[in-house]
Design a protein that fits this description.
alpha/beta; Rossmann fold; four-stranded parallel sheet; 10 helices; 8 strands; globular; binds zinc ion
């Protein structure tokens, strides 16, 4: 019996060590990891699941265990993911971390920009290459995929008159996207990306209402799954269509629209484009 347990433990040990365990902070990075990895059977996963809240994330004990078992850990940047940076420092794991967005850490929601996404994928690839886990072929495939999605989004917005390409967002999650695709974000209900549930002041609210009327804004976007009570009220008071729910912070579960980076960016673009034309 003892021998069996020992063998079992040994087997389990080999089993875990033989396959690279690569853990990313959230689903969008994990998607690119899956595309770049060359090692057959390499296990990759994300800490914050599909549907999870990125801002102000708190590490759980099971996350901590996942990170401890990981050979490579991938995050966006240490400033926006302080929970991950704190864990890395406390556990002396700076040799295992790849930050893919340190250069562009001033850009909010950088994965919504194709140009920044390409730069992040290159950084990710370089970090995986050093560990013999990626290849040039895979990198070029991912870069082509981003380029193709970008062209599809450009074609989508070409159907919207320029004067109509203006939106208000629930929180500032579409600035990089707007800049890339020639849209204007005239304002956000909540200014700080770190406080998605906080309400705006009465003054801020009436400013937004005036702005919508003055500039004939027809679309307010909100974050799917988040409290959008203020956005609902604003749309009602401005007598425009109800807020448009978008999924920007994560990829949807496999098999549904938005389950890959290209599908996520294109699905959001199609929703915005349709709403702007209404
Ligand atoms: Zn956000």
């Amino acid at each position: 019996m003892l021998r069996l347990i020992t063998l079992g433990g040994l087997f389990l040990g080999l089993f875990v060590d033989a396959r690279a365990q690569i853990t990313s902070s959230f689903t969008i990075i994990d998607y690119w990891v899956g595309k770049l990895l060359t090692e057959p059977g390499a296990i990759h996963q994300s800490i914050i699941p599909s549907g999870g809240e990125l801002h102000g994330y708190q590490l759980t004990p099971s996350d901590s265990l996942k990170l401890s078992k990981s050979r490579v850990i991938i995050g966006l940047n240490p400033h926006s993911e302080t929970w991950l940076n704190d864990w890395i420092k406390a556990n002396n794991r700076s040799a295992s971390i790849i930050w893919i967005n340190e250069k562009f850490s001033q850009v909010s929601h950088p994965w919504m920009s194709p140009a920044v996404s390409k730069a992040m994928v290159k950084t990710l690839h370089d970090g995986l290459m050093i560990r013999k886990l990626s290849s040039e072929v895979n990198l070029n495939q991912v870069l082509a995929e981003i380029r193709n999605a970008e062209l599809s989004v450009v074609r989508e917005f070409a159907t919207v008159p320029e004067s109509r390409r203006i939106i208000i967002t629930q929180h500032p999650n579409l600035l990089a996207f707007a800049e890339a695709f020639n849209l204007e974000v005239a304002g956000s209900i909540i200014e700080s990306p770190e406080a998605e549930s906080a309400d705006p002041s009465a003054q801020k609210y009436s400013q937004l209402l005036k702005l919508i009327k003055a500039r004939n804004i027809r679309v307010i976007t909100c974050d799917a799954g988040q409290n959008n009570r203020v956005a609902q009220q604003l749309a009602k008071d401005a007598k425009i269509n109800p807020p448009l729910p978008l999924t920007v912070e994560y990829l949807e579960k496999s098999g549904t629209p938005g389950d890959t980076w290209p599908s996520m960016i294109l699905t959001n673009a199609q929703k915005i484009s349709e709403a702007l034309k209404k």
